Amino acid sequence: MMEGEGGVYVYGMMGNSLPHLHFIKPDSAEQAEGGGAEASGGAWGVAGGPGWGPCSLLLIVSNNTLSHNAPLGAEMTVTIIVGTQWGDEGKGKITDFYASKAEVIARFQGGNNAGHTIVVGDEVFKLHVTPSGVIQGDKTVVIGNGVVLDLYQLKKELDELKDRGIPVDCLFISDRVHLILPYHRKMDGLQERLRTEGTKIGTTGRGIGPAYSDKTARTGIRAGDLLEPDHLRERIKDSLVQKNILFEAAGEPIFDADQITDELLELAGPMIPRIADTSALLNDAIRQGQSVLLEGAQGSYLDIDHGTYPFVTSSNTVAGGACAGAGIGPGVIDEVVGIVKAYTTRVGEGPFVTELTDEIGERIQEKGHEFGTTTERPRRCGWLDMVMLRRSRDINGLTSFAVTKIDVLDGIDKLKVCTAYELDGKELTMFPSSLEKLGRCKPVYQEFDGWPEMSKDDYTKVKEVGMDALPENLVKYVDFMAEDLGIPYHIVSFGPGRDETVDLRPDRG
Ligand code: GDP
Ligand code: IMO
Ligand code: MG
């Protein structure tokens, strides 16, 4: 619904149907119809009682024109942030950094297999499914349709954020998002248990694969189904028929559809007002020239198509996935920023050409605190791999990259960077798709002189002086990446804290 001029749009509920766009006067105390008020309340409902009062932060200001009539992408500032390696590159930290200048931050794939860490002063936030932009406190955050959503985890995370004083009222969930239900988690564990030695993936056990399998098998449950309880019950019953046969055959307890439906409806009740057509929300924001950040999870080599299959996750983690997973078109994308950790890590199984199993690997693991944010498993560590990064540049269409954890390499005498692979006496400069071949590839290294241990003050000087304040060898190391990839780096991160970040973009300080 859109009326009049000079006001704002708000996404609100009408009765039990899906949310609509509502137009309200900027100074009007009267909020959108229905407002989802009946359904809100409880520990994590839209706080402040009836209507969308506290969510005025997420109202999208219309510049005295009906924005729906403006061409898409008129003033676009849409940035995708993706991991270029095997995840845990520091996407959470860099998303939070970019988010200070954005209005809307959306996750577009993955689920609570992700673990994104944001450090602000003494506070450490570990987010698994809530977009990292939430920590800024005044942003609209969106869980896009491409995500698989565990409402149990989301409730836990939002409760915790609220307890720590972070406002969570401006979170929207796509009506098309697929839900991770208890039987998905169970199936994840069972599948992993039944895989034979050498074929185990080492999943996070969060039900990601089975939830995406249901989505493509067309037996998934979507957030929008929560608005139609009878239909939801039938969908869950239907989805459980085959699964219960498998659980029974494996000697596992079976699931009761009614029990799951009742529990889900109770859990989801306060969440109903947050369920919206987030594609419409994002497109509207883009039309109005708002800054939108699309926060990737995992990394390019965990992508279901482009990663080291089958040792991958179940979604498209590459930048192209952002369009399908957020419901926007590729024409509106402004920038694609690849997050590059200054070395390589991997959690779980699968080949890893530059893996270090010596004391340097241990040193990097210890100094970089390379232990999984989600499962606390130790991350395997290795040298930087340009063969991987070149392919990442191409499959993501990177326009720039951000280097993270450069400080972890301080004090290492000689650093190595893999520039090619050797296979059967030949040099490969592109990443092979065959895991058998990849497993036999040997790294071809270029050696770099290291730089001394640096203090936080040493690094902070870069903010005033620029990269010249850093040791020459460090600059050579980072410049080498940019020259090889043919794209610039705009961000250098030298510690986990929000302020331990250098922004080299000419228009930023
Ligand atoms: P994500 O999954 O890509 O968001 O990354 P994670 O949060 O799982 O892992 C990155 C880890 O490195 C977190 O503990 C961050 O706090 C930390 N971190 C991020 N950037 C830097 C950095 O530049 N230096 C150091 N030492 N730690 C960093
Ligand atoms: P962030 O967003 C690192 C890995 C798992 C496993 C494989 C499949 O924090 O970078 P899944 O549970 O997705 O079916 O597991 O993918 N994996 C990650 N590794 N960072 C992540 O996310 C990951 N998400 C999944 O360890 O090897
Ligand atoms: Mg992580």
**Total count of helical runs of at least 4 residues:** 13
Main sheet specs:
10 strands, mixed
The CATH architecture assignment of the domain at 338-503 turns out to be Alpha-Beta Complex
- Percentage of residues in DSSP E strands: 15-25%
Oligomeric nature of the chains: single chain
> Could you report the average pLDDT, rounded to the nearest whole number?
87
Give the C-alpha Rg.
23 Å
Distance between the termini: 41 Å
Say which CATH homologous superfamily of the domain at 338-503 is assigned. Answer: Adenylosuccinate Synthetase, subunit A, domain 3
Give a description of the structure.
It contains 13 helices and 23 strands. With 509 residues, the chain is an alpha/beta fold. The protein starts with 7 loop residues before the first strand and ends in a 6-residue tail after the last strand. The chain has helices at 91-99, 151-163, 182-194, 208-217, 229-249, 257-268, 278-287, 320-326, 359-367, 386-396, 435-440, 456-465, 472-485; strands at residues 8-12, 20-24, 60-61, 77-83, 104-107, 116-120, 123-127, 140-143, 148-149, 171-174, 178-179, 275-276, 291-295, 335-341, 344-346, 380-382, 384-385, 400-404, 414-423, 426-428, 442-449, 489-493, 501-503. Among the domains are: 1-69, no CATH class; 178-269, Orthogonal Bundle (Adenylosuccinate Synthetase, subunit A, domain 2), CATH 1.10.300.10; 338-503, Alpha-Beta Complex (Adenylosuccinate Synthetase, Chain A, domain 3), CATH 3.90.170.10. A ten-stranded mixed β-sheet has the order 12-10-8-5-13-4-14-18-22-23, with helices on both faces. Strands 17, 19, 20 and 21 form a four-stranded mixed β-sheet that branches. Strands 2-1-3 form a three-stranded antiparallel β-sheet, covered by helices on one side. The structure holds guanosine-5'-diphosphate, 6-O-phosphoryl inosine monophosphate and magnesium ion (MG). Guanosine-5'-diphosphate is lined by residues 83, 87-93, 115-117, 119, 368-369, 373, 404-405, 407-408, 493-496. Residues 83, 87-93, 115-117, 119, 368-369, 373, 404-405, 407-408, 493-496 line the site of guanosine-5'-diphosphate.
